[in-house]
Design goal:
- The protein is α/β, with parallel strands linked by helices and 366 residues long.
- Helix content is 34%, strand content 16%.
- It is built from 13 helices and 13 strands.
- It has helices at residues 24-38, 78-85, 98-108, 130-140, 143-146, 155-165, 209-215, 235-244, 261-266, 281-288, 302-305, 320-330, 347-364; strands spanning 12-17, 42-47, 63-66, 89-92, 115-118, 149-152, 172-174, 196-200, 225-229, 251-255, 269-272, 293-296, 312-315.
- The strands form 2 sheets. A 7-stranded parallel β-sheet has the order 3-2-1-4-5-6-7, with helices on both faces.
- The longest helix has 18 residues, at 347-364.
């Protein structure tokens, strides 16, 4: 028997998160949940662990199902919570949770409500070896079997989903993340006294902050500081690199920032040096406050954000000289900063319109 609800719209949305340790996927999810609640929808979040700084951003009114287990495998039983909660729709907030969505569909079968997943990371991964890339492509092409719909954050990411997942185009939508807003309740972050470069993101190998640290001694301005906001497993290795290069007086890594917008607004330039990304929110956030960006070509979406030379510079992933040259260019005294770039559209309304359409479509199938 098919999953049934009392509503012909997505009045009850269920999603999941592993922890609240500070990833961009989880932060965007909380912003979306806040918007859905504001529009009168019921939102349930199945959460492995609320340990982490993002716990302070969990919106009031959300219904939490706490698993008390920060392991990814704890979410493999999501289907049981979906069956017990009977939501109208399940939202998978990023690529990291695709296996959870697959197991949920397998567990529920024809009783499953629609499952919608957001593409949060690149689907083409140049850093993978031949065998890894082959296995990843095979996995992606299973996604149409367990996902009803995919949301990409830009047209190029949508095209990548169609090409790599073999997802039918009518089952792919383009909806941006809700823009970041200032958080007056966030603890203030000490900022460098002079000019500085800022990077915002988890301290994980994917982000390749080692590239940015290695570039700092080669930059012409030997007084410019580097501020990296985020936390993660690569902290010890990055701190060792900073010490080895004698940069302790110029590099600060104070951890997670509850509100990174003041640091972005005060920076001379924002840098992103990742191997791969989805649609890097930090680039949009930097441009929203009029700060130029330097980014590796870590996603097809980067050029959809940095659309003109007066907004920033895109460099190859493995070109240290190009990274240094781009940073030097934007650090030139008197360099004109871009005008703030306003966000377009209403992502909350667009998501709810999609969810309502999918739920109504399932109802018509009864």
């Amino acid at each position: 028997m098919l999953h049934r609800t009392y509503s012909k719209t997505a009045q009850h949305i269920l999603s999941c998160a592993q922890t609240m340790r500070g990833g961009g996927v989880e932060r965007a999810l909380l912003r979306m949940a806040e918007g859905w609640l504001r529009e009168g929808r019921r939102v349930t979040l199945v959460l492995g662990s609320d340990a982490g700084p993002l716990a302070a951003e969990i919106p009031p009114g959300i219904e939490l199902i706490m698993l008390g287990d920060a392991r990814y495998s704890a979410l493999f039983r999501l289907g049981e919570h979906v069956r017990a909660s009977a939501p109208d729709l399940v939202f998978c907030p990023g690529n990291h949770y695709s296996a959870v969505a697959a197991l949920t569909r397998f567990y529920l079968g024809r009783t499953s409500p629609p499952i919608v997943a957001k593409v949060s990371n690149a689907l083409v991964r140049p850093e993978q070896g031949r065998l890894g890339a082959w296995a990843y492509r095979r996995w992606l092409r299973l996604h149409p079997r367990f996902l009803d719909h995919v949301v990409a954050m830009t047209p190029a990411m949508a095209a990548e989903a169609v090409a790599e997942m073999r997802m039918p185009p009518e089952r792919v939508s383009v909806i941006a993340n809700p823009p970041a807003a200032a958080r007056p309740d966030a603890a203030p972050m000490p900022l460098p006294a002079g000019r500085y470069i800022v990077g915002v993101g988890r301290l994980e190998p994917q982000k390749r902050w080692d590239r940015l640290i290695a570039a700092l001694p080669r930059i012409a301005d030997r007084q410019v500081q580097l501020l990296i906001l985020g936390e993660g497993s690569a902290r010890a290795a990055l701190e060792k690199q900073v010490a080895a290069l004698g940069l302790a007086a110029r590099v600060s890594m104070p951890g997670h920032a509850g509100d990174p917008l003041p640091a972005l607004a005060g920076a001379t330039v924002v840098a992103l040096t990742s191997d791969f990304e989805g649609v890097p929110g930090v680039l949009r956030e930097a441009l929203s406050v009029g700060t130029p960006v330097v980014s590796t070509e870590s996603s097809v979406a980067v050029r959809e954000i940095v659309t003109a030379p007066d907004l920033g510079t895109i460099v190859p992933r493995e070109d240290p000289a190009a990274l240094v040259a781009a940073l030097d260019d934007w650090l030139t005294p008197g360099r004109t900063r871009p005008a703030p770039v306003a966000a377009d559209g209403d992502p909350i309304a667009e998501y709810l319109a999609l969810f309502d359409r999918l739920v109504a479509g399932q109802q018509q199938g009864f």
